[in-house]
């Protein structure tokens, strides 16, 4: 590791898409994965807790961050193999690559499969942690394997997608063994002839509006980008972390009972990874509970999408979390449904 890259008392506002104010006690921008073992050993010797920071798009800073914050700034995209199975190629991207830029690089090279995940903020290394997904595709569907540093064993390891415990917005890295693995690179199985995923009505509507009857992966990506831009604020213009709450997975019988009491309730078909459960639209619950467009000081519920909490500037994480808690309590009281926060907390209140 390079001691000159270690900085003290670093303002983290530029490193989170919500734009919340917080200070890292120590901060290191990691540009070489080989520096990781020495960096973690130093932190252990100093007794510093360690936090990993990717693109900052799925983080809420509850307060200042003690110990060492490592920003994963690793870069690089390469083709590992062609004709892996038919015309499938294995593409490796370093953990610090911006996710959206990577999806567009893949498309430009004729590597299809990521088009439905266009314009999702964040970094490549964070994508498996959250098992990000949109419009019928999840990381679990396209990932081949990854390389990570196992902090428990003190070695770099290779994990196949099947080893990652993927579930709806969840993984081995998020729930089962958080903090154990530091992802440094992710590999994807992509293909020029991979079937397009067009099942979501929004995509079909966007393609129809654009006059596209025989879509390509590029057409799908353009449609997804247009949909997301119409629904979600640009973090560069208005601080946000995308969807702040997960869509609850509920037993089909409970969904039927809710739809009987609330006929407009939006729910989706049973999920393959969760037999017998249905996904309920958290945004609908929040909007119907009266929160859409609500503002409290520096924080608010977005005026176009109730699932998104926004920060107008100058605020702290405690304000945002207090608003989130009130929304959760309101939805619970009205519908008997417990919302779960999607972004992870970092720092001390």
TrEMBL record:
Record-annotated FAD-binding PCMH-type domain positions: 20-193
Needed co-factor(s): FAD
Pathway assignment: Cell wall biogenesis; peptidoglycan biosynthesis
Subcellular location(s) per record: Cytoplasm
Catalysis: reaction(s): UDP-N-acetyl-alpha-D-muramate + NADP(+) = UDP-N-acetyl-3-O-(1-carboxyvinyl)-alpha-D-glucosamine + NADPH + H(+)
Record-annotated membrane-spanning stretches: none
One record GO biological process: cell wall organization
Entry protein name: UDP-N-acetylenolpyruvoylglucosamine reductase
Organism, scientific name: Paraperlucidibaca baekdonensis
Name of the encoding gene: murB
């Amino acid at each position: 590791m390079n001691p000159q890259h270690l900085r003290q008392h670093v303002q983290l506002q530029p490193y989170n898409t919500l734009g919340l104010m917080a200070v890292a006690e120590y901060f290191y921008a990691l540009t070489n994965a080989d520096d990781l073992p020495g960096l973690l050993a130093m932190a252990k010797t100093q007794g510093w807790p360690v936090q990993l920071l990717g693109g900052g798009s799925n983080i809420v800073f509850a307060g200042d961050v003690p110990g060492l914050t490592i920003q994963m700034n690793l870069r690089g995209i390469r083709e590992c193999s062609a004709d892996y199975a038919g015309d499938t190629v294995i593409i490796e991207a370093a953990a610090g690559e911006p996710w959206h830029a990577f999806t567009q690089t893949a498309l430009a090279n004729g590597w299809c499969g990521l088009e439905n995940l266009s314009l999702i903020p964040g970094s490549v290394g964070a994508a498996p942690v959250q098992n990000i997904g949109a419009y019928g595709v999840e990381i679990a569907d396209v990932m081949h394997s990854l390389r990570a540093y196992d902090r428990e064993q003190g070695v770099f390891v290779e994990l196949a997608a099947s080893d990652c415990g993927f579930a709806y917005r969840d993984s081995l890295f998020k729930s089962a063994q958080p903090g154990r693995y530091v992802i440094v690179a992710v590999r994807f199985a992509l293909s020029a002839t991979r079937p397009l995923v067009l099942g979501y009505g929004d995509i079909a509507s966007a393609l129809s509006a654009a006059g596209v009857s025989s879509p390509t992966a590029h057409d799908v990506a353009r449609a997804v980008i247009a949909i997301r831009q119409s629904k979600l604020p640009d973090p560069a213009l208005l601080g946000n972390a995308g969807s702040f709450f997960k869509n609850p997975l509920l037993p089909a019988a409970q969904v039927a009972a809710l739809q009987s009491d609330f006929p407009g309730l939006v729910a989706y078909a049973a999920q393959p990874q969760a037999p017998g459960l249905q996904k309920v639209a958290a945004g609908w619950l929040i909007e119907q509970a009266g929160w859409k467009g609500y503002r409290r000081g520096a924080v608010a519920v977005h005026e176009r999408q109730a699932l998104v909490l926004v920060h107008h500037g100058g605020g702290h994480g405690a304000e945002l979390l207090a608003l989130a808690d009130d929304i959760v309590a309101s939805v619970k009281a009205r519908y008997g449904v417990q919302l779960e926060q999607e972004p992870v907390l970092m720092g001390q209140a």
